[in-house]
Amino acid sequence: MMDKVKILVVEDEFVTGLEIRARLEDLGYEVLDILDTGEEAVEKAGVMHPDIMIMDITLKGVMTGIEAADLIRRQYRIPIIYLTAHSDEATVQKAVHSEPFGYLIKPLEERALHTTIRMALYKHEMDKALIESEKRYRAIAELAEDSIFVLDNNHNILFLNTHAKKFFGQEQDLVSPVPLGSFIPASLLDTLQEQIKTVFEFGNSLRVTHNFTYHDEEIWLDSTIVPVITPDGVIQVIGQLHDISMMVRIEKEVEKKGLVQIEHNMEQFQILNDRIRNPLAIIMSLASMFETKEGDEIIEQVKRIDNLVTQLDQGWIQSDAVRNFLLKHYGHGKIAE
């Protein structure tokens, strides 16, 4: 090791403390001090900043080792290994709840001491890396222009980014998990919960577009729900809600304009049909009055034009069918007479 690991020992038995110091120094560690009260342990932890602490559960003074360790963990995030002469279940349970990095039983065995310290230091480094990683991901989530949230398997919100808070009118920061329904509007909640339930059940990502009314406004959200497993094996889901309302409204407007243009073209076909047929009838009558070569040629040309007009008539009938289809499925157009 290039730098010695600095260890602060908290042990109320003087002889045992000296023995622990000797063992640790033999293993290549640096012992900063040996303390015998929880109060002093909390104070010196903030001053000496050891890499790790070995804490006896039973200490002199008012504060127990577990109480001291809890304060040190929350204030300084220093990894702590418990030391005790007791291995009964009640003592172990009390120790476990304070999240120690290891647990040693007196009398100490050198190999167990060394292994426990190395494992505790490794776990502490991994925890720090995880915290830094979470900070980076939270920062990225805060920069996103989508609503992002994290849920536990009871559909409680563990994290909500700033955009989601603004979108759903959630002003206060989350200090503890809250139910999903506390910020998702009722018009969206049921379908979103079904989506989340499916992701938890099958473990696959799911993407769905939700259409609902919120504050008297029609909203479209493209939602993606992804399952994640935390390092301690807990299953959670991350949700991303992308507001596509503006895009949908634009598409609908473009679609509407296209239907208006189709309607206009249909009307023009009908007008063109009427305006051609009337002059053709007059020309045909005039040409039939004289049995001449020129008259016969005029009649032949009129017949060709009439055939074209007949095709327009058939097209207009088909257009009526199109018109009725558009009216039925898109709610736009006039009923064909």
UniProtKB/TrEMBL annotation:
Keywords: Phosphoprotein. The modification 4-aspartylphosphate is found at residue 56. It comes from the Archaea. It holds the Pfam family PAS. Residues 6-121 form the Response regulatory domain. InterPro entries: CheY-like_superfamily (IPR011006), PAS (IPR000014), PAS-like_dom_sf (IPR035965), PAS_fold (IPR013767), Sig_transdc_resp-reg_receiver (IPR001789), ST_Response_Regulator (IPR052048). SMART domains: PAS, REC. Residues 133-203 form the PAS domain. GO terms for biological process: phosphorelay signal transduction system; regulation of DNA-templated transcription. Transmembrane segments: none annotated. This is Response regulator.
